[in-house]
Amino acid sequence: MPLIGIxxxxxxxxxxxxxxxxxxxxxxxxxxxxxxxxxxxxxxxKPTLALEYTYGRRAxxxxxxxxxxxxxxxxxxxxxLDLISVPITSDTLRTFSLVLxxxxxxxxxxxxxxxxxxxxxxxxxDKMIMKLGKTNPKAASEMRQKIWNNMQKDHPDRELIxxxxxxxxxxxxxxxxxxxxxxxKRKVICKTLRFVAHYYGASLMFTSKSEALxxxxxxxxxxxxxxxxxxxxxxxDQNKPLFITAGxxxxxxxxxPPVPENDIGKLHAHSPMELWKKVYEKLxxxxxxxxxxxxxxxxxxxQYAESEVDEMRIQKDQELEQYKRSSSKSWKQIELDS
Length: 338
Description:
alpha/beta
């Protein structure tokens, strides 16, 4: 499916009629379901194998050209981090948003999934901003300033946060399963995700198959994709689905990490983020690194070796590398099946 290039002149403040929204997150976490709901497509979601693309259109008014939103989805959880570079280019950067979908029903996978995906994405976005800065310093500077827009100038946490370089929304999926967790577990997950979202200047919300919750999520995605007005509603009650728009939370409301005071001193951490990670992983220890590595690419496991299949796999890997290289040169010419 051919992509269409970004409209608008460089750094002149002109409104751009195209935006890109990139969905990353937990494997089988519900990313495709959210995209289909946002696009009003009544079809069963199919597993996302690698990187998938689709788009939506929305008219601003009568007899006006339709805005276009490009929706990208990364499959495989954290196993395909290299593909993050495909949709995020110096051309798409200024109209780019990120949606991180985390499966609340699998709390032991939550932190490593979140950490690996956000670190890999942030690293690539930072590189693209530097690249943009060499050709268009004004646009790069505007991007760095824009990330502070969600935080009021007099917000008490302004000096304590580190906003993500592009707009970020964190969605906790499968709330219907999560709501049956023990109260203490729900408290730790909610407070931890609130801290991470607020630290990165992100919005945070929980969803499930509930139509009411999906409609709220759809409103948030529409804001990213088409510039619809932001919702100002907020819910921080851990006994209800969280819904916190970027900039409306605070560290004082979130409170300290949920651990006995006499235990905090025993946790050696170099930053608040690391402290929250240690508290979280004490209750929800992640799978061992070896296990994660094994999951990363079972196709390379010797026990499943088949010469013909392996030869095809090598060919596909080479095609993928070529695809990634060509996409970095001209993203306008990429064609992906939606």
